[in-house]
Write a structure and sequence with these properties.
minor pseudopilin epsh fold, binds manganese (III) ion, 2 domains, 50% helix, mainly alpha, Helix Hairpins
């Protein structure tokens, strides 16, 4: 345990007396892909990748996958477990930690690590081995109803992913009955914004720098055109 961090988190949590946690814990997950892992309490773990480390080549190399999953994702898991250990937050599921700590300055370290664990697990599930098959018909209709055409969606998603300044994420989300593209900075996640995430692209430099260096747009277009897991998006849409 990190002696410098845990007492501070513990004190912040105790001051709050966990008002509102019962409500947070009662929120249904609603996401097909994350239901098992996101509902488990500490110690948290990075779920196994849904594909082999070389399965996304040549769009994303095995070397990138190895570092991204094995070092970055795992690093957030390790930090999160250290931060919540011996605090009341240890009893909460990953998703409830994200919801409970969002927007609270004194719990920013917990939020950042918990949300990054959640976002990365969601990112792996958003991807599949290079393909190019169009979305299932129902999802295609939802996309064209909201964006006008598949190509307009593609352009909107790419624009969000390439225009996010600095580190962050580009998301396809369901907002009530419409689909939207949104971008979030650092660890921020639409999970806490009343939106239902369907797909995400990680645009932190660690996601593409070994393969694309500064060419984020090339990485983004390759992911959009070849790696998006439409079946998972449809399952998340529900
Ligand atoms: Mn990442």
């Amino acid at each position: 345990m990190d002696a410098a961090e845990s007492p501070r988190v513990d004190a912040a949590v105790n001051r709050r007396e966990f008002i509102g946690l019962a409500g947070g814990a009662a929120i249904a997950l609603g996401l097909a892909g994350l239901s098992g892992t996101a509902r488990a309490a500490a110690p948290h773990a990075a779920p196994a990748l849904p594909f082999a480390e070389d399965a996304l080549e040549p769009v994303i190399s095995a070397k990138t996958l190895s570092f991204h999953y094995g070092k970055h994702h795992q690093g957030y898991v390790t930090a999160l477990n250290r931060l919540v250990n011996d605090t009341p937050l240890a009893a909460l599921s990953l998703e409830d930690i994200v919801r409970t700590t969002a927007g609270k300055a004194d719990l920013a370290a917990v939020f950042n690590n918990a949300a990054q664990v959640w976002n990365h697990t969601f990112y792996w599930q958003s991807l599949r081995a290079p393909g190019g098959a169009p979305p299932p018909e129902r999802l295609q209709k939802a996309i064209t109803d909201s964006f006008g055409s598949m190509d307009a969606f593609r352009q909107a998603f790419a624009a969000a992913a390439t225009s996010q300044f600095g580190s962050g994420w580009a998301w396809l989300v369901a907002d009530q009955n419409a689909l939207r593209v949104v971008k979030t900075g650092n660890a921020e996640t639409p999970l806490t914004q009343g939106l239902k995430p369907l797909l995400v692209i990680d645009v932190w430099e660690h996601a593409y720098y070994l393969d694309y260096q500064n060419r984020r747009a090339d990485y983004v277009m390759a992911v959009i055109d070849r790696l998006l897991n439409w079946d998972v998006a449809l399952a998340n849409l529900g």
